[in-house]
UniProtKB/TrEMBL annotation:
Class in the EC hierarchy, top level: transferase
Superkingdom of the source species: Bacteria
Organism: Paracraurococcus lichenis
SUPFAM superfamilies: Nucleotide-diphospho-sugar transferases, UDP-Glycosyltransferase/glycogen phosphorylase
Keyword Heme on entry: no
The protein's name in its UniProt record: Glycosyltransferase
Enzyme Commission numbers on file: 2.4.-.-
């Protein structure tokens, strides 16, 4: 080597015979820039590999400003012909240097089966590549790379990267060192290190994610012998200073991996969320989705729980442990409530040690009540839930008073109790869940004592716990706890979001729409945003695949004084708890928001996640002074966040156009009767009414609220208190708006069953609806179908289903109050006297309403859904990421590069 070159002397390897390029089995690519003093160590580490297949070191001088770099490489190339090669290029960065080495090796070494990337300042122990080569020979082709533990020198630290490969974990943290052996087939697929977006750092993380998207997986190489030089100032340190920017770039490039569905599929495959210990089952079940569980022997699961407690970064164990009685699980599955209760429990276990669910019988509705503290014995609970960590902690201390006292009340301040009230009769909860919990604690305790003296790993596992990776990945896209569900193959998912559920007209419309969609292969999900109770009946389980109630996630964070043209605006998206609300809806293909005002603010985040959003409007409400206000005004403020808006009438469609909503976004979905009628009952009602004599039977059926004109109804009742008229009033107050009570008139409670409703409509000759504002009331359509004439105020879109003098009576809404009441009274008296006219009105009404179907009324909406969300075909294969990917969303990805703990 000429004395004039400014390089330190290097140890010359003994002369080697030239090597035929066709013999090379493994090529080691060494990018070199500005580290000529360390480069000899890297080259000699390659040349000193023992028991390895034929090797070649390819040094890529990336435009290094020091001539010593090229001189060192040439020095070794001359001494080791065919074993050391030098490539030189202008400075283009680390990724470009690796890519240059890849391209050269693939072309120059036809029999090369793998490449290894060794940075110029790192080292290898003598048997590293022999171990890596043996692993490659034994693994299937789908195993694309082999990554080591990371033993540092300079700053001393030994970092473990063991355990089965997890793509879900890799999405959150990069635990695959660039110094990994990569199979030739991976690189022949065109996969390369990014030279643009990731040039400032995290390029190896990006590369492994590319490989995973192409269908390859990594494999840990234990005790490999990789040595990483740790310095306080380095490329890694520079990258960490740009972490937020680089994570954003990484997230944008790999957005297909970060969709809610992709994360759910990974969680189910690699990190099932829940372990179920069923009282009557000897083993256990692991699952994300309760309907797709894998059975595991209880001893195996216990060993996994303990292993995860000792090596949380290497071993996955379920985050939640569920102890339940089979009868209770079957009940909750049948009522479509199990996903909701698991969602609630996971959220509560963030702040509580134990969640206990008790199921009690009720009268008519469903109610979920949250309590704190040991107010009742845990033994009565049908379900018990705690975290896997908590279960292990209890087992590690078998004499804990907390464990001993589980046979009575649990004296834990962090106990949360859920009480679910369902219409009975229900099976009485027993103590099976508690007994199984106690048995598992005891078995875990024995296993812990038997293995407690086993030595722990000497390397430090710097990674986060695997049981938390799914949660961290969801947080990266703004989601909290998601429903424990997986999409069903071949089916699409649609969520219906409502503020309340009271079996009124709006809820019936939603149920009918859901049934039509279920019949067309969709899975339907009901989410009630503003209450922990709802009306309940068989129609619910016939309409929805899941039912979820929530309250307190920010849905009531409304701004009344800064609204949009009089409509309120929502701050729900700024509430930290709203991430859980997004989690409820994120797995849907489509969400339909029906009057859940606070949830308008969730639609834009959902659309960024790929969910299609529709608003649904039923009427223009009015204030006590008659001023238009309510849901349509509020939705107009959020129109930009919706893919479409469903309206139930032509009148409402015109109103929305007048308010500036785009005509093309409006989709007309006219109402039809709220339930399917029995043709025999309809025919019998028409025959009976044709032969009927006696007083005119008049019915009011609806909410006893101001909107329905209850004060007008009271006056009409008083004015028609005569032998020729028989009244029935059926309903209840829902809105609690101070409507005038009906004095002296018995009020029957509302009915829900179709046969009970048909009986009411069949009894009546005339339905009276003196409302102040309406949409398209289902009660009118249902009464008409049974041949019952209608007298209603001409408000909203009532005139689209009632024609004055043809099939009913319309009272103008712009008259003085006294005149409106008088018109109703006159109509009742006139029809009581002229039964022929009454029967003619009813017959024409029956002909009109009897021809209506939900399938016909939803045709336009169904066509839009087919265009927006085509029926799924085979699962797509994730292709390699291109060189540049457009931005997908705003939130910065949270995660971790490879850093010391």
């Amino acid at each position: 080597m000429p004395d004039s070159l400014p390089v330190r002397p290097v140890t010359m390897p003994r002369a080697m015979l030239p090597q035929d390029p066709a013999a090379v089995a493994v090529a080691v690519v060494i990018p070199a820039w500005n580290q000529p003093g360390l480069l000899p160590e890297a080259i000699e580490a390659v040349l000193g590999q023992q028991d390895a297949p034929p090797l070649a070191a390819v040094v890529v001088d990336d435009g290094c400003p020091s001539p010593s770099t090229a001189a060192v490489a040439l020095h070794y190339a001359a001494a080791c012909p065919g074993r050391v090669f030098l490539l030189r290029q202008r400075n283009r960065g680390l990724s470009a240097a690796r890519n240059t080495g890849i391209d050269f090796a693939l072309a120059a070494f036809p029999n090369c089966r793998a490449l290894f990337f060794l940075d110029a300042d790192n080292r290898l122990r003598p048997h590293f590549l022999a171990r890596a080569w043996a692993a490659l020979q034994a693994a299937p082709v789908a195993t694309g790379w082999f990554y080591p533990d990371i033993d540092e020198f300079g700053a001393e630290q030994n970092n473990a990267c063991g355990g089965d490969f997890s793509l879900l974990h890799l999405i959150v943290q990069n635990y695959c060192e660039a110094g990994s052996l990569v199979r030739r087939e991976v690189l022949e697929r065109g996969l390369r290190f990014d030279t643009t977006a990731m040039r400032a750092g995290f390029e190896d993380w990006d590369f492994w994610l590319q490989c995973a998207r192409a269908g390859f997986r990594g494999q840990h190489l234990p005790e490999a012998g990789f040595l990483y030089r740790r310095r306080p100032e380095s490329m890694l340190a520079a990258a960490e200073r740009q972490r937020d920017h680089l994570l954003r770039q990484l997230r944008e490039r790999h957005a297909p991996l970060l969709t809610p569905r992709a994360l759910a599929a990974l969680e189910a495959a690699e990190a099932p969320r829940i372990a179920l210990f069923e009282a009557e089952r000897p083993g256990a079940l692991l699952f994300l989705d309760p309907d797709r569980a894998a059975e595991v022997a209880a001893p195996e699961l216990r060993r996994r729980l303990l292993a995860a407690a000792r090596a949380p970064g290497a071993v996955h164990a379920p985050a939640l442990c569920l102890f339940a009685e089979g009868e209770a699980l079957d009940l909750l599955r049948g009522q479509r409530l199990l996903p909701m209760l698991l969602w609630w429990a996971e959220r509560l276990l963030r702040e509580h040690e134990l969640v206990a669910l008790e199921i009690v019988p009720g009268e008519a509705g469903l109610e979920l009540e949250l309590r704190h503290g040991p107010s009742a014995p845990v033994a009565r609970s049908a379900l018990l839930l705690l975290t896997g960590e908590r279960l292990v902690r209890l087992a590690e201390d078998p004499l804990s008073p907390e464990v001993v006292s589980l046979d009575g009340e649990v004296p834990l301040p962090a106990l949360a109790r859920l009480r679910l009230t369902l219409p009975g009769p229900l099976p009485a909860p027993g103590s099976g869940a508690l007994r199984r919990l106690q048995a598992e604690i005891a078995a875990l305790g024995r296993l812990h004592l038997a293995t407690a003296r086993m030595p722990g790993p000497w390397r430090t596992d710097w990674r986060g716990a695997r049981r938390g990776m799914a949660m961290a990945a969801r947080a990266a896209i703004g989601l909290g706890t998601t429903l424990p569900l997986l999409p069903e193959p071949g089916r699409r998912e649609i969520g219906f979001l409502l503020p309340l559920f009271a079996f009124a007209g709006l809820e019936k419309v939603v149920m009918r729409q859901a049934r039509v969609l279920r019949g067309r292969g969709w899975r339907t999900h009901l989410v009630v945003a503003g209450a922990l109770s709802m009306d309940w009946g068989p129609e619910v389980t016939e309409s929805f695949d899941t039912v979820t109630l929530f309250q307190g996630l920010g849905e009531d964070r409304l701004e009344f004084d800064t609204g949009y043209f009089g409509g309120v605006t929502s701050r729900m998206d700024r509430d930290p708890a709203a991430a859980d609300a997004l989690g409820l809806l994120a797995l849907c293909d489509v969400v339909v928001n029906t009057h859940a005002v606070g949830c308008h603010a969730l639609m834009a985040p959902l659309r960024r996640l790929g969910v299609k959003a529709f608003g649904a409007l039923h009427l223009v409400e009015r204030t006590a002074w008659g001023e238009p206000n309510g849901n349509p005004q509020t939705l107009a403020a959020y129109e930009h966040a919706y893919d479409g808006v469903l309206v139930i009438s032509e009148a409402l469609r015109r109103w929305c156009i007048g308010q500036g909503l785009p005509r093309d976004k409006l989709c007309l979905v006219r109402n039809a009767p709220g339930y399917a009628a029995d043709p025999d009952r309809v025919a019998a009602a028409l025959r009976d009414r044709a032969e009927r004599t006696g007083p005119l039977r008049v019915l009011f059926l609806g909410r006893l609220d101001a909107q329905k004109g209850i004060d007008r109804l009271a006056a009409i009742l008083a004015a028609t208190d005569m032998p020729e008229v028989a009244w029935r009033v059926v309903g209840r107050e829902v809105l609690a708006d101070g409507a005038r009570p009906l004095l002296g008139v018995p009020v029957a409670p509302p009915v829900q069953a179709p046969e009970e409703l048909d009986a009411l409509y069949a009894w009546a000759d005339l339905l009276v609806l003196p409302s102040r504002f309406e949409g398209v009331p289902l009660v009118i359509l249902e009464a008409q179908r049974m041949g019952c004439a209608v007298a209603a105020t001409d408000v909203g879109a009532v005139r689209e289903i009632v024609t004055e003098g043809e099939d009913g009576v319309l009272v103008p809404a712009d008259l003085p109050e006294e005149a409106i009441i008088q018109r109703f009274v006159e109509a009742i008296q006139r029809l009581a006297a002229d039964r022929a006219a009454l029967r003619a009105l009813g017959a024409r009404a029956a002909a009109r309403a009897g021809a209506l179907t939900w399938e016909d009324s939803m045709r336009e909406f169904l066509d839009r859904l087919e265009a927006l969300v085509p029926a799924p075909g085979p699962a797509p294969v994730l292709a390699p990421v291109p060189a540049a990917v457009p931005m997908i969303a705003d939130a910065a990805m949270r995660g971790s590069a490879r850093v010391a703990p």
